[in-house]
Task: structure prediction
Amino acid sequence: MAASDAFRIKAAQDIGAQGGLISLHSAAVDCSSTANANATEVSGGGYTRKTTAWGTPVAGSGGDAGKAVMTGSTQQFDVEAGDTVSHFCVRKADGTPLWSDILVPGLTLNSAGNGKVDVVAVYKYSHP
Result:
């Protein structure tokens, strides 16, 4: 039996309540421990983690039908020139990793100075 939209939306709300601290990474993130997640985190260029404000989850449509979709506020990160940024991680306020995803599109900063990266985290919850 398929889960209701109300169930999926409530699950997404509960997940969002766990944390919204965003970190940027140069490769896939292993969320099994903080040390593992930190292993691929970018550094330098004034980079710091940022906290997103999660919006209210909604029932998805089109390609997201059957999912609850929750979008965070845009966060702008300073990153060092030459850094590759391909993934982001969502963490609790204390830095504990919760989940991660690929950053689309990923990028490599090639400028002589530092660059800025805008990230909008989106969580999609589905349950059969």
